Amino acid sequence: MTTKAPWSDGRLCYGxxxxxxxxxxxxxxxxxxxxxxxxxxLVTVGVFAWSRLEPEPGxxxxxxLDRVLDLLHANGIRAALATPTASPPPWFSLRHPDALxxxxxxxxxxxxxxxxxxxxxxxxxxxxxxxxEVLAARYAHHPALALWHVHxxxxxxxxxxxxxxxxxxxxxxxxxxxxxxxDAWVTSFWSQHYSDWxxxxxxxxxQYLANPGQLLDFRRFWSDTLLSAYTEQRDLLxxxxxSVPVTTNY
Length: 250
Ligand SMILES: [Zn+2]
Hints:
By secondary structure, the chain is α/β, with parallel strands linked by helices. The protein has two domains: 6-159 and 233-247, TIM Barrel (Alpha-Beta Barrel); 161-218, no CATH class. Helix content is 41%, strand content 8%. α5 runs parallel beside α8 (212-240).
């Protein structure tokens, strides 16, 4: 069994997401047999598996993923192993309500779907690094591992107090002082002049057209925030095994 990446032999990588944690293990062998028949040589696993990998805070259950990766390896199929940080488990949301996202309308969202987290909340970032670290420690040298798939579809925004504080820090770094920010955002228009940093927030829902400078800077700031959430995972995955590629998706 080769341990080279699927693309290293010139073959096209062919496959897709596989979510075996969502159905019984008895089906897995049939799944893999069908993959082989279809010529699949690479599958993404674990994208939304955080609650199955860490059902309680700090208690990890890797037995099922061990079986999945061993089964793939035995069948010559490589894995793009995901860090599951796009969807924290219910226990995380209950324990850290301040890490639940707030919409532009000021509504604090609750658990029940996917992507329900705030990338600027320290508790979320800590938990995300933690689960990525334990995955790296366990699987960085697994023979089925072709690459790491960090998170999934970065993009979810937030307007919570953590985000607003981080936005003000980012703006301070960009403009230095409020005079420069007032100039850049042309706040002489419509009585928007800021006299204290505490008055500066994220672009919440507002009465009429929002300040375009504020909107643009919020997008720049959030891009930087998501990029830092990605790179901190990338760096610890690379540290565990520098030869394994790391990527993400949109
Ligand atoms: Zn937030």
